Amino acid sequence: MSGLSMERQIERLRRREKALAGFGTFAFSEPELDRTLTEAARLCAECLEVPFSKVCKYQESENDLRVVAGHGWKSGVVGTAISMANATSPQGRAFSTGKPQVCANITEANSFTLPAFYKQHGIVSTVDVLVAAKSGVPFGVLEVDSPVADAFDQHDIDFLTGFANILAEAVATADREEALRRTVARMEELVHEKETLAQELKHRVRNSLHLVYGLLVSELGGDHDQNSISAFRAIALRVMGLAEVFEHLLGTGMNKVIEFGDYVAALCANLPELYADQAVKLTCVVDAVRLDLDVATSLGIVITELVSNAYLHAFPRGSGVIHVTLRAVSGAGLLTVGDNGVGFVEAETKRRGVGLVRRLVEQTGATLSVRSDQGTIWTINFPVFGDVPPIPA
Q1: Residue 393 — pLDDT band, cuts 50, 70, 90?
Q2: pLDDT tens, residue by residue, 145-176
Q3: If you placed Cys at 268, which of 168, 249, 254, 284 could pair as Cys (CB 3.0 to 4.6 Å)?
Q4: Do 32 and 154 fall within a single domain?
Q5: How much is the pLDDT for 350?
Q6: Is the dihedral of CA 201, 206, 209, 215 positive or negative?
């Protein structure tokens, strides 16, 4: 700078300060490291008023420096040109010593073994500074090249050193972000794997339950006494309820919420199969209600028990109607199971499952009431929590 006028020197310093500040803003907002390195090379060449600049990255496996970004070079240099990371090249010497290196005239430096592209571009003088790392092996070297001998001085070294420090921090930030992206990607991969396994497990359990259910239903038509038929039917009821749970969980990943209305409708569609010998009609009307899996499973068992009791005990003459209704009312669910049968008097009956019904209702935080007047109506009020997550599409 000594040959420049004072005004020219001040202007150059201001331009370099502005470039440093601007590059810092750019580097820490740019997500792509390649673009940051390319912009660094361009600004350094522009500020030092030379045609060539490059960033070389250290490759530990080969112990060399590859040009990963540059400005002014012909095709074939950036991405492929390599120098050894030792004293045989200016950038190698800067990397191995950790100190800035200025070569006033590389054509006179017999100790260097330079790649052919230096001669092809007419490079005569170079200045190299280390792009360090917070810890461990440095990232590489920032080099500026000129076709003029003795083109660089201490002011240039100071500027490039400050620039390389900002670049080193930008590289470290990019490495942290890349590590974070890899971590997030791996976590997403693990979640996907778990969801895939969960789906496979649900398929297997669902299929197994349907198989067991089919075997139990087939036994209902076998040559068994009434007690055995009742036992087969009771077991089939529970198996069917569980099978429908897994049926409705398919496609929901690891979510523990199901659409309870659809589940109730499916139960009502399957229950008549267990009582094909009776002239009883089962109707079902449901609203959409999202419900926790455990609560839905318990209430599903309640429905099968109450419907089963109605089939078995409400119609001694062999015909009638059972109705199941599910309504969503002001953040709560209202479930009714009723019939137009002979009515229900708990003190005089030993109907199977009534005790189980009361225990399950209590466990879910619901309330149960029964009215027996020209038939029987069981009414269950249960909470529907507003923070229950949505069913996946």
Answers
A1: very low
A2: 999 999 899 999 999 999 999 999 988 888 88
A3: 284
A4: yes
A5: 45
A6: negative
Q: Could you give the 3-state DSSP secondary structure of residue 29?
A: coil
C-alpha 131/C-alpha 55 separation (Å) is 9
Q: Which of 183, 200, 227 delimits the end of a domain?
A: 183
Q: DSSP E strands: which ranges in the chain? A: 52-59, 64-71, 82-84, 101-103, 125-131, 140-146, 257-259, 279-286, 290-292, 319-329, 332-339, 367-372, 376-383
Lowest mean pLDDT among 61-75, 85-99, 335-349: 335-349
pLDDT tens-digit map of 2-61: 556 778 778 888 888 888 888 888 888 888 899 999 999 999 999 999 999 999 999 999
Q: Are 330 and 212 in contact (CB under 8 A)?
A: no
- Decide if 286 contacts 261 (C-beta within 8 A): yes
Domain extent, residue 358, equals: 251-393
CATH number of the domain where residue 356 is located: 3.30.565.10
DSSP 310: I
Q: What is the pTM of this model?
A: 0.52
- Helix (H) / strand (E) element for 197: namely helix 154-220
Contact residues for 268 (Cβ-Cβ < 8 A; gap 6+): 282, 283, 284, 303, 307, 324
Cα–Cα dist 262/21, whole Å: 62
For helices 226-249 and 293-309, the axis angle rounded to 10 degrees is 150
Query: Residue 369 and residue 371: Cα distance in Å, rounded?
Result: 7
Euclidean distance between CA atoms 54 and 76, whole angstroms: 13
